[in-house]
Specification:
This protein has nine helices and three strands; from the N terminus they run αααααααβαββα. It is mostly helical. Strands 1-3-2 form a three-stranded antiparallel beta sheet, covered by helices on one side. Strand 2 and strand 3 form a beta hairpin. Helix 2 packs across helix 3, helix 6 packs across helix 8 and helix 7 crosses helix 8. The termini are far apart.
């Protein structure tokens, strides 16, 4: 108690942090879950997608988090109909693309640019917005494009 008093440690105040198990803490405390997690994080993004595609809700939430916060906040003001139309146009263009190819899309308005960037990030496509010219470059970085099981336009309806 001498050293505690010397350093101003109040032994009456024990650990006051609530002891609840978060999903993350339960992951670290369970060796079986940890094995699965290590395999998952060492997998390629394509394999991670396959694993996540088993559960559309997990997959869509994971994809949604890939959209940058600034773009996410601007999505709120874009009509779902606009997002759905751009999504359909983009997916038809991208599904014909080969590995490492690029499609250049014209974004006449800020709304279109935000929607293209959001859909690209959600779909895990590399996207570069070229300002002041109204062009957005979308690049296929994977061997094969897989459409999200839950389109962004549909996910946004449930938010």
């Amino acid at each position: 108690s001498g050293i505690n008093a010397e350093y101003g440690v109040d032994t009456e105040l024990q650990d006051i942090t609530p002891s609840h198990n978060s999903p993350l803490s339960s992951l670290f405390s369970d060796p079986e879950k940890m094995k699965i997690w290590l395999v998952f994080i060492d997998s390629t993004e394509d394999i991670q997608d396959e694993i996540l595609n088993v559960n559309p809700e997990i997959e869509s939430n994971s994809r949604y988090k890939k959209i940058s916060k600034s773009i996410r906040s601007e999505l709120e003001s874009i009509p779902r109909k606009t997002i759905k139309q751009i999504e359909e146009d983009m997916y038809s263009a991208v599904s014909d693309m080969g590995y490492k190819s690029v499609v250049v899309l014209c974004a006449a308005t800020k709304t279109e640019r935000v929607a293209i960037v959001a859909i690209s990030q959600y779909s895990r496509l590399k996207c570069t917005s070229h300002l002041p010219i109204n062009v957005v470059e979308v690049e296929m970085r994977r061997k094969q494009f897989t459409k999200p099981s839950v389109p962004l336009s549909k996910l946004l309806l449930s938010r």
